[in-house]
Amino acid sequence: MIAGTRRARQIGYAVGALVLVVVLWELVKLVVPERGVSIGDQRILPRTSDTALPHVWSVITVLGQKDGSGTVGGTLLRTAGFTFELALLALLIGTVVGVALAVVMQRFAFVERGLLPYIIVSQTVPLIALAPLVAGWGGKIVIAGEPWRPWMSIAVIAAYLAFFPVAIGMLRGLQAPSKASVELLHSYSASWWKTLVHLRFPAAVPHFLPALRLAAAASVIGAVVAEISTGTAGGIGRQIIVFAQQATGDASRLYAAVLAAALLGVAVTAVVGLAEFVLRRYSRPVGARSSSGGTR
């Protein structure tokens, strides 16, 4: 009963937020002049013409317009499906790499001290500059006689964003058990592996799941940016560029593509919700986080 009420409340909040955005959108279009508002040479309010800010219903109705051999909605569904698959693959790769790095850093304190700063610095590299490098290096790689495909570059680039929150969150979770809990397992002659599986992994779940949600969002962002940067066709990122080039008098198609990309992030996050359901028994924090210099 309580869980059902909480779920209904969450859905109500989401619907309410969506309605609020729509109302504010139309209110801005109604109140602000089409050329926006400027003070001197500085624009303080955006333009609200159909080229810059179409009506919400225009963005919805454009989905039924003809686009090639199908409709705009069909095109967005197809391209979003392509990006969805790549984002899930990137999330899987990023999760495996992030968890592996966290386990190694937790096991060896000197690895954490030496590697963690570089993991943090890695996220300061502009993705738009990294994408051409990955695509160029990948073009020289052959795996089991198969050449490197453009979608592989997209998956690697997106995984580069996704691994970071997983590595940091998982490391914090693996360090969460109290010193007394670790010493208790040592008193039972539990090996490092058994301590990891029976104590540290369950204790890390409350830290791992929020990190996985962040990684899901990062994987979608990485996939979209990588598609644009590498010029790979077939995904929603490239479709945004195509519709942007077509938006001469009406930007409805462009906004529809952006909306599809946003909903794609929701879909990938929903997959993470399945992991939360499976691991719900471990969702409560276990013990207190030990200091970084504590027993490992």
Characterise the protein shown here.
- This protein is mainly alpha-helical.
- It has 2 domains: 1-48, no CATH class; 54-282, MetI-like (MetI-like fold).
- It is 71% helix and 5% strand.
- It has helices at residues 2-31, 56-61, 72-107, 109-122, 127-138, 150-174, 179-187, 192-230, 236-246, 252-278; strands at residues 37-39, 42-45, 66-67, 70-71, 142-143, 146-147.
- The strands form 3 sheets. It has a two-stranded antiparallel ribbon. It has a two-stranded antiparallel sheet with strand order 3-4.
- A hairpin with a 2-residue loop joins strand 5 (142-143) and strand 6.
- The chain is globular and about 75 Å long.
- The two termini are 41 Å apart.
Total count of strands: 6
Helix and strand succession? HEEHEEHHHEEHHHHH
According to CATH, what is the class of the largest domain? Mainly Alpha
Widest sheet: strand order?
1-2
Gap between N and C termini, in Å?
Answer: 41 Å
Q: What is the architecture of the largest domain at the second tier of CATH? A: Orthogonal Bundle
Helicity, as a percent range: over 70%
| Tally of helical runs | 10
Low-confidence stretches: 287-296
Task: Return the CATH topology of the largest domain.
Answer: MetI-like fold
Roughly what fraction of the amino acids lie in strands?
A: 5-15%
Which class of secondary structure composition applies to the elements? mainly alpha
| Radius of gyration (Å) | 23 Å
- What is the 3D form? globular
Described by strand count, sense and barrel closure, the largest sheet is: 2 strands, antiparallel
- CATH fourth-tier homologous superfamily of the largest domain: MetI-like
Mean pLDDT: 85
Q: How many structural domains in the coordinates? A: 2
